[in-house]
Design goal:
The complex is a heterodimer of chains A (113) and B (111). Chain A is mainly β and 113 residues long. Chain A has no helices and eleven strands. In chain A, strand 9 and strand 10 form a beta hairpin. Helix content of chain B is 0%, strand content 54%. The chains are: A mainly beta (113), B mainly beta (111).
Chain lengths: 113, 111
């Protein structure tokens, strides 16, 4: 039982390049989330998917797109990377006692030059 | 956006001491969660709270859901070096599926 896995672990992009961050969970959770973490800012929600087939914007969605490929997988795409998107990106899924406990992946460290 | 004020921002504690940290919000929350993050890792869930006044323990950690539903507290007793890390609170409003996170308390334990 791997929990939440993310690939890649590290990535360097040039401004304007595109890439997709992958996330998968094996806990049979319905909801999945993408966050970014910047120094001193805590975790900010980019997009989330309450269930397979649905996605919603979070606090900072601009410059990102997401795809809920199936119940297990939720990907985050940067179409044209900008230096302001340099950050650590975390994927999470939620389940537990009342379904609100979020479990996080190990993160992807992205640098845009 | 939703503001979660977490304090203190950082703490330097002698090994063996107890520590307390808290989180306050401008809105009423129905769920409070506490996470710990080690360097280079994702946050790990420590304690989840679902009822006002609830007090829950996980080993040396104890967390409380404030009576006003606008705050939560985390206590760590008899700190050890592996307690070092950043502790985050997170809260969920009624009807919301997502969480709001505090900015974290960085704990340093001095052996």
């Amino acid at each position: 039982n791997a929990g939440v896995t993310q690939t890649p672990k590290f990535q360097v992009l040039k401004t304007g390049q595109s890439m997709t961050l992958q996330c998968a969970q094996d806990m049979n959770h319905n909801s999945m989330y993408w966050y970014r973490q910047d120094p001193g800012m805590g975790l900010r929600l980019i997009y989330y998917s309450a269930s397979e087939g649905t996605t919603d914007k979070g606090e900072v969605p601009n410059g990102y797109n997401v795809s809920r490929l199936n119940k297990r997988e939720f990907s985050l795409r940067l179409e044209s990377a900008a230096p302001s998107q340099t950050s650590v990106y975390f994927c999470a899924s939620s389940g537990g006692n009342q379904g609100y406990e979020q479990y996080f992946g190990p993160g992807t460290r992205l640098t845009v030059t | 956006g939703q503001q979660l004020n977490q304090s203190p921002q950082s703490m330097f504690i002698q090994e063996g001491e107890d520590v307390s940290m808290n989180c306050t919000s401008s809105s009423i929350f129905n769920t409070w969660l506490w996470y710990k993050q080690d360097p280079g890792e994702g946050p790990v869930l420590l304690i989840a709270l679902y009822k006002a006044g609830e007090l829950t323990s996980n080993g040396r950690l104890t967390a409380q859901f404030g009576i006003t539903r606008k705050d939560s507290f985390l206590n760590i007793s008899a700190t050890i070096p592996s307690d070092v890390g950043i502790y985050f609170c997170a809260g969920r409003r009624t009807g919301a599926n997502n969480l709001f996170f505090g900015t974290g308390t960085r704990l340093t334990v001095i052996p």
